[in-house]
Design goal:
The protein has 161 residues and is mainly α. 70% of the residues lie in helices and 0% in strands. It is built from 9 helices and no strands. The radius of gyration is 16 Å and the shape is globular. The N and C termini lie far apart (42 Å).
């Protein structure tokens, strides 16, 4: 099943946004099938697996960073950021936090956001951008809630630093 997801994501990357949105439904069905297979085997799949593994996380991070770049409420924070490095760190962070094999080697959130004075409104804007991405990929409600909870758990280390 992971191969099907990887092929679907690769095809999605080659499509325009409208066609890719249709592909998101295929990905959601494949994710549901994976979860059902694990249930039948009596196993609870890790969030990492339910999200579709690293390939899916890379696609989500790419879309999320594009949403943030288009969001005038917060894109100024990233004006001088090495975007390739940011994406790599975000992929590793989400991968590790969701139970995947990646190891996040970046700064802790307090250090990474020191001196930025991010407000609750700006943090929420970033959350809205992530939610938009998860909806674009038709991530099921349970997994969406888990991702948003992971994000929310960082709020105290990001706001007001």
């Amino acid at each position: 099943m992971a191969g099907v997801l990887a092929l679907a994501l690769a095809a999605c990357a080659e499509m325009n946004v409208v066609a890719c949105a249709g592909m998101a439904g295929v990905l959601a069905l494949a994710l549901a099938a994976c979860a059902e297979m694990n249930k039948e085997m009596g196993e609870e799949a890790l969030l990492y697996d339910r999200l579709g593994g690293k390939e899916a996380i890379v696609a989500v991070v790419d879309d999320f960073v594009a949403n943030v770049a288009a969001d005038d409420r917060i894109n100024g924070f990233f004006a001088n950021t090495d975007i390739a490095h940011l994406k790599a760190m975000l992929v590793d962070q989400v991968c590790e936090a969701s139970g995947g094999p990646c190891v996040y080697t970046g700064k802790d959130m307090k250090s990474a956001h020191a001196g930025m004075q991010i407000t609750e409104e700006q943090f929420n804007a970033m959350g809205e951008d992530m939610l938009k991405t998860l909806q674009t990929f038709q991530v099921p409600e349970r997994e969406t809630n888990e991702v948003m909870t992971l994000l929310g758990s960082m709020q105290g280390d990001i706001i007001g630093q």
